[in-house]
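Retry 2 of 3 after timeout on previous attempt. Resubmitting structure tokens to design endpoint.
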């Protein structure tokens, strides 16, 4: 009885709070604009935004091109986070980045390597590259951790298995050598071994390795290019034990580091299903860390694994979806935003009624531009199913406008001036 009363109380509070929700125009991380760096490109102007930064970019719009992660260029200049650098552009490219709120970006231009706005003279640009998905990088002379040289590390043999690095002589945690019995090797990123002992990471976020003395090294085998391994004749995904034992390694087909097939089973993050045709299965798109897209002879599917009960979910996609363009460059920070009547009215944008603008007095789209993008955040409970909104600050000769795109599209005039 008490449980039922408690449940009703929670539901009542949810519905009550749901009725009073006010949507905040900022993300949960407290960014005023967008978390990722973004250029907004109009017909005659370019703006840059990132979290608390909003600035107009002094550029030649006709030749302006974005590279990504705050890096862009025109015919005469290179820009980082909207600021002009004293560098002549020659097809700048991003080599790798350590993405955080204030991300570090390594990029190359005119045979030099740059770290954000600073040129790094010591790195050999012709051979420099990032090592897998790690904070390690190397050139033909040295190995680097977050841009700092690791003394004695061998670049020819150096590899990485997060959060460790390995060469022919040593194992490394960050930029420090780890002393074990011989060469410490990664088995699958959760289990490791040296010449004598098998180790297991204490937890997924820890660098500490705990020895497993009752496990022989010869009974622990990697499945190359994956997070899977055979431990004592049982298939593991990282530290997760599966039900597959006595397996034949020759029957394993690797689709990517999280996705493999074995006999009639598809494994994704260690969870298995037999609902797809394994013989014709191919990976279509690696997607995010939460789902992937695969095909078999019967169709196209999104697959994912739920975190709360390790259930394998498969969603059939009847028609291969085309890339969806939005007015916002939220989905792709290289999106070119050109605001015109044609773009507003065609099917590429989630606005299909001209009356949304004409009813508010906007009839001339030639001088209308997007000057800012804001993300809406709804702090509701589980009963709040309304989608989060995207807000766009528009500008024309009359002043500033706010366009809200959500379950309902709303355009409002907000004044002759606007405080960013």
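Retry 2 succeeded. Sequence:
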């Amino acid at each position: 009885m008490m449980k039922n009363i408690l449940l009703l109380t929670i539901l009542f509070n949810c519905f009550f709070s749901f009725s009073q929700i006010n949507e905040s125009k900022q993300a949960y991380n407290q960014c005023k604009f967008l978390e990722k760096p973004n250029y907004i490109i109009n017909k005659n102007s370019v703006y840059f935004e990132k979290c608390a930064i909003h600035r107009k970019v002094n550029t030649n719009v006709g030749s302006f091109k974005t590279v990504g992660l705050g890096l862009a260029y025109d015919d005469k200049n290179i820009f980082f986070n909207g600021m002009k650098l004293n560098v002549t552009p020659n097809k700048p490219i991003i080599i790798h980045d350590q993405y955080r709120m204030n991300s570090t970006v390594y990029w190359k231009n005119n045979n030099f390597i740059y770290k954000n706005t600073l040129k790094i003279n010591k790195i050999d640009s012709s051979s420099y590259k990032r090592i897998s998905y790690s904070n390690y990088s190397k050139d033909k002379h040295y190995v680097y951790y977050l841009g700092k040289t690791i003394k004695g590390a061998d670049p020819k043999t150096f590899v990485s298995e997060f959060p460790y690095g390995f060469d022919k002589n040593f194992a490394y945690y960050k930029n420090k050598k780890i002393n074990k019995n011989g060469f410490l090797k990664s088995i699958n990123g959760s289990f490791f071994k040296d010449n004598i002992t098998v180790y297991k990471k204490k937890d997924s976020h820890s660098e500490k390795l705990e020895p497993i003395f009752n496990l022989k090294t010869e009974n622990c085998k990697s499945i190359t290019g994956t997070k899977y391994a055979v431990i004592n004749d049982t298939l593991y995904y990282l530290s997760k034990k599966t039900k597959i034992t006595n397996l034949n390694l020759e029957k394993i087909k690797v689709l990517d580091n999280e996705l493999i097939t074995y006999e009639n089973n598809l494994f994704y993050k260690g969870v298995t299903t037999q609902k797809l045709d394994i013989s014709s299965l191919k990976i279509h798109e690696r997607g995010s860390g939460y789902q992937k897209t695969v095909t078999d002879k019967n169709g196209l599917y999104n697959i994912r694994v739920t975190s709360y009960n390790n259930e394998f979910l498969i969603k059939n996609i009847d028609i291969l979806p085309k890339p969806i363009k939005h007015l916002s460059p939220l989905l792709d920070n290289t999106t070119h935003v050109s605001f015109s009547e044609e773009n507003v009215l065609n099917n590429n944008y989630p606005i299909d009624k001209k009356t949304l603008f004409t009813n508010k007095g906007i009839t001339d789209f030639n001088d209308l531009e997007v000057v800012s993008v804001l993300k809406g955040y709804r702090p509701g409970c589980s009963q709040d199913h309304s989608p989060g909104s995207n807000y766009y600050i528009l500008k024309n000769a009359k002043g500033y406008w706010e366009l809200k795109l959500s379950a309902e599209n709303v355009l409002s005039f907000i004044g002759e001036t606007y405080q960013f």
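Attempt log closed. Residues 180-247 form one domain.
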